[in-house]
Amino acid sequence: MIDSTHIVVVDDHPMLREGVAMTLAAEADFEVVGQGGSAEEAINLADEFLPELMLLDISMPGGGINAVSTICQRYPVIKCIILTVSENEQDVLDAMKAGARGYVLKGVSGPSLVNIIRRVQQGEAYVTPSLAAALLKEWHEDDADKQKTNIFEALTKREKQILEKVATGLSNKEIANKLFLSEKTIKHYMTNILQKLQVRNRVEAALLFSKQEN
Prior knowledge:
Layout lengths: L4 E6 L3 H12 L4 E7 L2 H11 L3 E4 L7 H11 L4 E6 L4 H10 L3 E4 L4 H12 L4 E2 L7 H12 L10 H11 L4 H8 L3 H15 L4 H12 L1
Parallel strand pairs: 1-2, 1-3, 3-4, 4-5, 5-6
């Protein structure tokens, strides 16, 4: 059985959004779990589905970059890709500083978009070559400085709830049973928690949590 990558597509142009969703849904290992047309809907979809990846337009109501910033702060595990017509270099810089892992122009072909998504999913950052890919270096440097303070404040209520149970020694399966969630969902949340706390494993996370509780 294929372990699907869950994807959300957010764009205020329904025909384009549905076309992108159909292209991605045709891939055996991609599953489009949600669609929206605004920054508010993007954030709500992130909260609801915690997808591995989101595609967002810049110019949608509420602003795509604002949505990316909120989603990436709340859920670093979600990889956001901007899909836009804007070739403005400042937009590229702002998007990457907000936390986007990719910046793609809408003229891209279906197969190329699928390839880009796979590369981002594997941990790469991507900017359409005709734009200033050199901006990535500045993004990486700034991003490292951004995440050093108030790490526990960055956790959502659900993440704190899960971390409390981890600190008592419960396994992912036991936590899943108590919270009526799937074990896979708990694993996904744990990946998110470890990234936010900048620790390597659940033991370090539990120790860090116990120290701040005392």
